[in-house]
Prior knowledge:
This protein is of the alpha/beta class. It has helices spanning about 10-20, 25-30, 35-50, 65-95, 100-120, 170-175, 195-205, 225-230, 245-250, 280-290, and strands at about 55, 60-65, 95-100, 125-130, 145-150, 155-170, 240, 260-275. A six-stranded mixed β-sheet has the order 4-3-5-8-6-7. Strands 1-2 form a two-stranded antiparallel ribbon. The longest helix has 30 residues, at about 65-95.
Amino acid sequence: MKMSKQFPLNSLRVFEAAARHMSFTRAGEELRLTQTAVSYQIKLLEDTLGEQLFLRRPRQVMLTDAGARLAPKISEAFEIIDEALAGTKSQSDSTLIIHTTATFAARWLAHHLGTFQLENPGIAVRLETSQEMVDFTRTEADIAIRSGSGQWPGLRAHFLMKSDFTPMLSPALAETIGGVHEPADILKLRIIDPGDIWWLHWFAAAGLPEENLQGRPISRLGAQTIEAAAAIAGQGVAILKPEFYADDVALGRLIQPFELRATDGSDYWFAYPEARRHSKKITAFREFMRKMMPTFRD
């Protein structure tokens, strides 16, 4: 067993304060302990060491030779610990770790993170992407931006935007069939990822609830932003969230043939642990999102 494991760290902290103040009373005031509790911790340490550390006299305590040898080394050890903890907290406070989907990162965050950092030069940003909802107890993260219900135990969630969707495709692909004029025209073209449940929701909303997409070539591309790139290249029709691709529509790379949108009941949310709601870096980014996204609400 390591020697350090044999000693009660609380007692060492109490000893360090008492030796520095030369007073059990003032050590107790600093550590918010009663004088009785301070005396108990000192006695526990003395019993563990087998050495008397203080001479108790009326209204005064004095270090013994053993106590005088020990005190500066214990003080130095706690200074090293405090410095290490302060450095860790400083690094933690200065780096904001955001977990989100590749699509939200590429289509929204990438356009706005630079502004956030200009407004908050003391906060660095680390962006992590995945399709899974982050588990804050297992993953290093400060906030998550995800689609879902917004009801997650232990998390505070703020609504960002609706997660609705509609078919989008390149103008050139639409022209291969003389244009897309009604929902059924979509079925004349290759559908990117026909196994995506969004298609069933949209076809049902369009009055084609019985449409069966089975038997079509499966193309799981892993992220909406990759499906959009395939659609821009004329590889098929993708089911996308139009707000993320307004630039591509403006540049003529994509068209949205129908105003009709559908939803699967999920929306985009800004979430973080309830216990960390007062964190300065989380507060700063929450207020930035509130300013930049008109649909943000508590």
